[in-house]
Every structure is written in structure tokens, then in C-alpha cells.
User: Which sequence fits this backbone?
């Protein structure tokens, strides 16, 4: 179980996660706007630029048109791992997704990144604005990594025992 | 091993290589920064209206009028960008709404979509 937060003046629901972009060797925290209306998780230019994403390296990546925020814009798909910290179970929860990185267009620069239904469908959300509580429970995940040492070591040993994967 | 299982192993290996304890520390630090921004927001509106702010370790570490300027400032001050939350403090709240939710036939792209109203 983990909690999100509400923006104080906007009242918008946010959830913090770590985003890993393996191909670009980038890892950074991102504050996502929880958006049940978004089909896909989107990384907006504010976060992408801060994380150090070089847009010219995305040019070759497969992209598509994003409709929505202030019109239409181009986006680039990139393999990403979204990590949440499940405090109550002392574990990290990871989701492997194709994240859309919105093009660096001025109109989008002020928007928050969106946590879409590709991730939200795998969580249960309890939303209570009056009590300023937004709580997520994991229903499924691509990987779970224990944070307590004993469980983490046993998992590490199990992974090391596995035969190398074919390239 | 099935494709699903081998994908999981690749993912677990990747996470182990990143050091899970460190990942957790980084995430907690970032969450702290985000919470600080949330609770400080009314004051930030008075202090930094229509400006970009960078919050690091619960404090405003830099502010500027453009995104590039704030990123430059952060670089000069050696503020780690990974652990910093950067937000534009808007004086006039924008109302974000979903304009249309219908889908074009044979396309996954929604027509219309989200627009913002001033």
C-alpha cells in the first residue's frame, strides 16, 4: 500500500515514482498526475528535460500522435520501468511499460506527467479528497523486490542460480 | 522458460543491479521533496508567482522565469536533478478538462481530448 498526495491549490492527485529508462541509462523521480482518462503513461517535457532525456536520441524511437493536452502533439515511445515503494509490505513494486515521451513543445512545458491506465489498471485506488487521502494497493506487478535484507538476499540468490538468458 | 517468465527475470536482474535499497532511498527523498512542495504551495504562489521553482530536500533551491534558466541554475548550484522536483507556479489556476472521449474507428487515438481553460 502506498499513498499519493493532493496538490494544495489545484487539488490534483499526484503520485511519486521512480522512472528508469534502461536504453538511455536514466533514472529519476517523477511526480505523476493520476489520470484515469489517459490511455497511456506520459512523460511531459518538464520532467523529460530535467531527467536529462536527449530528444535527438528519441528521434529514431517509434512514436505516435498524442491527442489531448492543449491539442495534439508528437510523442516517442520508450521502454520504461516505473517503480513504487510499497511501504506497508517493505517492497519495491515495478511495472515495465512503454512510456510516451511528449515532444518538447512550449505548450506542454508546464504540464505534469500523467500516470495512465496502463499502470492504474494494476492498482486499486482509494480516493478521499475530503480527508486528503489517496491510497493505492497493488493488485498485480511485473516484479516485486523485497527491501528487508533476508528476503532480498534469498531473491538475489535465486536470480543468480537461474541460467543466463539467450540473447 | 516462457517469454513472460524470462521477461520477469530480466526485470528482476535490472532492479537488483540498480540496488533496491538505493532505489528506495532515492524514491523516499523525492517523495519528501514533492510533499514539501505540496504543503508550501500557497506561500510559493505569493513568493514566486508565474515562475519555475526547484524543490530539493524540502526547500526551494532555485527559481527562474524559464525552464532552461532553472535547469541552468540547478546545474551551477550542483543540485541533483534526479532528486529535485521542478514545477511552474501558476498564479491563475488553469482548469483542465477532458473535451471528448470518443475513439476514432480503427484508431487508438482519442479525438479531441484534454484542453485547458484559463
Assistant:
Amino acid at each position: 500500500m502506498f499513498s499519493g498526495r493532493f496538490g494544495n491549490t489545484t487539488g490534483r492527485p499526484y503520485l511519486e515514482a521512480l522512472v528508469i529508462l534502461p536504453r538511455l541509462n536514466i533514472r529519476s523521480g517523477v511526480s505523476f498526475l493520476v489520470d484515469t482518462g489517459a490511455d497511456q503513461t506520459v512523460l511531459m517535457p518538464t520532467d523529460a528535460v530535467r531527467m536529462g532525456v536527449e530528444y535527438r536520441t528519441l528521434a529514431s524511437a517509434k512514436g505516435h500522435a498524442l491527442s489531448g493536452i492543449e491539442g495534439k502533439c508528437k510523442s516517442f515511445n520508450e521502454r520504461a520501468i516505473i517503480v513504487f515503494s510499497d511501504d506497508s509490505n517493505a517492497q519495491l513494486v515495478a511495472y515495465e511499460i512503454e512510456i510516451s515521451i511528449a515532444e518538447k513543445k512550449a505548450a506542454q512545458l508546464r504540464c505534469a506527467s500523467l500516470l495512465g491506465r496502463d499502470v492504474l489498471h494494476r492498482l486499486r485506488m482509494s480516493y478521499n479528497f475530503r480527508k486528503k487521502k489517496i491510497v493505492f494497493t497493488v493488485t498485480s506487478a511485473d516484479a516485486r523486490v523485497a527491501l528487508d535484507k533476508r528476503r532480498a538476499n534469498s531473491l538475489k540468490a535465486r536470480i543468480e542460480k537461474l541460467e543466463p538468458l539467450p540473447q | 522458460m516462457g517469454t513472460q517468465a524470462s521477461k520477469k527475470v530480466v526485470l528482476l536482474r535490472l532492479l537488483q543491479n540498480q540496488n533496491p535499497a538505493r532505489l528506495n532511498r532515492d524514491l523516499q527523498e523525492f517523495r519528501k521533496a514533492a510533499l514539501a512542495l505540496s504543503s508550501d504551495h500557497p506561500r510559493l504562489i505569493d513568493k514566486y508567482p508565474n515562475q519555475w521553482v526547484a524543490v530539493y530536500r524540502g526547500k526551494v533551491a532555485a527559481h527562474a522565469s524559464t525552464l532552461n534558466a532553472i535547469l541552468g541554475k540547478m546545474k551551477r548550484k550542483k543540485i541533483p536533478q534526479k532528486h529535485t522536483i521542478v514545477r511552474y507556479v501558476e498564479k491563475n489556476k488553469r482548469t483542465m478538462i477532458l473535451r471528448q472521449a470518443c475513439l476514432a474507428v480503427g484508431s487508438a487515438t482519442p479525438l479531441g481530448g484534454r484542453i485547458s481553460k484559463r
About this structure: The longest helix of chain B spans residues 20-47. Residues 3-92 of chain B form one domain.
